[in-house]
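Input protein
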Amino acid sequence: MKKEEDFVMGLLVYIARLREKKHYSTAKSYQDALNSFKCFCGMEKIPYSYINRDTLLCYQSWLLGGGRSLNTVSTYMRRIRHIYNLAMEAGEAPFVPNLFKDVFTGVESKRKKALPREMLERMFNAPLEDPSLRRVQLTVRLMFAFSGIAFVDLTHLKWENIRDGILQYHRQKSGSLIQLEIPSGALRLLDELSACTAKESLYLFPFLSGTRTGEAAYKEYNRTLSRFNHDLKLLARSTGVTLPVTSYTIRHSFASFLKEQDVAHPINQGENSLIL
């Protein structure tokens, strides 16, 4: 009798291939989906025949009942669908018409993420005695001053990225070249935050060790991002900001600020930056 193919093994093989290609973020997304689905099924091995419309609908209800967002449901379902389709093409899984039709695989529109101007000013300028909170405050102010720079790009900046008052770097996500003039008032913030960095560090700011490579570097950054978002919530609470705040909030808030000021390009904001 032919042994039935296993969804778990198929997904693990796919994850291994992603890691070989250094697609660590995508690999983690598939691993998260696998861990969640295994927990729901209560099985270490899941035959493809077990994956049917009823199972997927129950899984969706289980996720939502556990407080997962629709976007998380969509991500997990799309990961499962991709692996199932690969197995079906290889003749390892049966064809089931409209298998994923009744589960959510779209994108849920998000609520507005930008902070109101008065909350930004409070978070940026409130006096703080705690040195750790002061570092977080400096970080968000610099993210805003650097045209809403992504946290991942800020953490990877080096002194060589700054020349003659110009910040120049390549986006970690896309590789796109970014160039912008640093507002003069941001220089003291830059100096204060960079002074917290260990002298032997490769980077400008005190977030990453610079000693790790490959997947170990990716995991270090994820831990750093998680810690920063945790500390950002503490900063918000300490400064009376009542809306949810994450590293992405600064990018969205900067874009909203430009729109309010009717500025077409970040380079044109000059000395009118909110933080200066």
In short: Confidence is low (pLDDT under 50) at residues 265-273. The radius of gyration is 23 Å. Strands lie at 162-163, 166-170, 177-181. The CA atoms of residues 150 and 248 lie 7 Å apart.
